[in-house]
Amino acid sequence: MEKNLVKIGIIQSACFREKQRNIDKTTEKIIDIAKKGAQIVCLQELFSTRYFCNTEDHQNFKLAVPVPGPLTENFSELCKKLGIVLIASLFEKRSEGIFHNTAAVIDADGTYLGKYRKHHIPDDPGYHEKYYFTPGDEGYKVFDTKFGRIGVLICWDQWFPEPARLTAMRGAQILFYPTAIGWPEGQDEELCKVEYDAWQIIQRSHAITNGLHVVAVNRIGNEDGNIFWGGSFITDPIGKIIYQAPHDEEIISVQEIDLNLTGLYRSLWPFFRDRRIDTYQALTKRFDVE
After folding, report:
1. Which superfamily does 5-277 belong to?
2. In sequence order, what are the beta bridge partners of 12?
3. What's the pTM?
């Protein structure tokens, strides 16, 4: 079978308290990973700041930026210079009082292709995202880049099959999940392992049922009692782990994938062919018990 190879770049980092230090550090890592041959580079969720959603603090709204704006313009220049596609997760200020958790996508010629706004917003101990983020309202998107058609979802979206399916149905060849997820400090080690395994398994299932590669990029580090578990990974369209990062180390990694595996596995396991779309009407309900 003829191959259609693309090199995926993962940047897994710890974050400083100073926003500009994170931007500068990440920029250096983007340059380094491009030198290693990366063609599509994905950053972790909210890469430019520590994970501020662990508290409800009105001052944190000052961290938000317009998208597009000066930061994406700088990245556009960088992408054009390096010839890479970039997925950058940002805290977006849409207008006064409306903020989003947003991923901007920039093509290899520096063109700003658009953004995806996170749809599923959690509210858990240490993850008070509903205080900060308005749910996305522009639907699930794909972006036609120099190196393939990609879909982008964000963190809590990972746990739901519907966004992955809908993005795949729009023709995504790779599904990226910028992420910030971890354990509370002092949690039992066995429970930590169970939670990480669940996180990885659900995303591997998205790869299998949709016949595409999935790339999840997480952060590391202890941020005020949240220990982010790293473990960024890539799985192929049959759920095989191609690459997994460590839980507690900063890494930049380039992994080659074959986009033509989508056609192979979708013909071997034709889930799209056998979907009974005439029976799924109840999915539009919150819950359905007779």
Report:
1. Carbon-nitrogen hydrolase (3.60.110.10)
2. 251
3. 0.97
